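Annotated sample (chain length 401).
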Amino acid sequence: MQPVEIKKNIYWVGFVDYDHRDFHGYSRSPDGSTYNAYLIKDQKNVLVDTVAPGCAGTLLCRLAKTLEPEKVDYIVCNHMELDHSGALAEVVERVKPEKIFVSQAGLKSFAGYFAGKNWPVQAVKSGETLNIGSRNIVFQETRMLHWPDSMVSYIPEDKLLISNDIFGQNIASSARFTDDFGDDAEFEKRIKEYYYNIVLPYSPMVLKALPILEKLDIDMIAPDHGLIHRGAKAVRFIVDFYRRMAEQKPQQRALIFYDTMWQSTESMAYAVCSGLEENGVPTRLMSVKHNHHSAVMTELADCGAVLAGSPTHNNGVLPLVAAQLAYMKGLRPQNRVGGAFGSYGWSGEAPKYLQEQLASMGMTMPAEPVKCAWQPDRDVLKACHELGRTVAETLKRKCQG
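Output written by the structure step:
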């Protein structure tokens, strides 16, 4: 359990959770995750963030390999969510810090999680500087990225930004740095997965925060999950990547998600897919029975069009489609083109409901929903193909304009 020196006298002392698959209870983490914590050794020794519940022993072991835990003077809590603060009580008991620094909003979170603890907690403001000897830690609030209490810690002498949840990924690996990971495509997918399932609703805040961070002299970004971005090229890459995701400019690619009961809606989904692809829009078709809702959202990162299909069930849609819609709506995707379709045997409300739900997310809806009684015949499949064509043409104009 060796610590990893990321800058001179600054160490990663976190925990790699290879078995974690259910991140925050709503998003899959197929490769596990990491809870990153950092030790800064100076005249005042500082531990920045801790780890999840049950992981304190590993953190303290790594910490002890470079510094006796009792010699930690300060703890900085950039964010009070339990994957970062769940080990705090055990760490405080061992370390007995002089001070614990949190954001102004962090005081409320702190009181909620650690009521009755008589700890030396001090709130800091944006721009406030803590001198620890040869270094300074500059605090910057990043509210709603992704909690009200979120902040980042910047060490100008080391050109290091400890970025909390932003710029992170769910990756469990022996690699600590992005340049050691070795699979660029997989790494980018994990960035999208993290952003589109956690950060996406706060994209306007991302676009406000990036110019502030870009004024700083940074050659390393150390997030609280995943790999560390090392070097000017890696820093530029992740900042630009975040800007593109936050801007949500439409891309010429489509996503179809659906559920089916007796394969009628599935047949319609494939016909819609053909209409899109034959008109120049590559398409990913995803059954919600076989794809987790967070995987569907990850796919949306590359798609400027979203089409939903479901048979009518109890005058509505099938439960997994309803869940996908609710999850997607909460994440607030922008600048998309939408479409809806579905089959029915009795009343047929599903397509209209899907249309309304996608429209309520601000999507452009260029065609009426396609509905089918019982099984799709040639005319229905032709209408589905036409729906795909119409969405494709609308999306292409949106991408050009």
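Annotation: The two ends are 53 Å apart (CA to CA).
Annotation: DSSP finds twelve helices and 24 strands in the chain.
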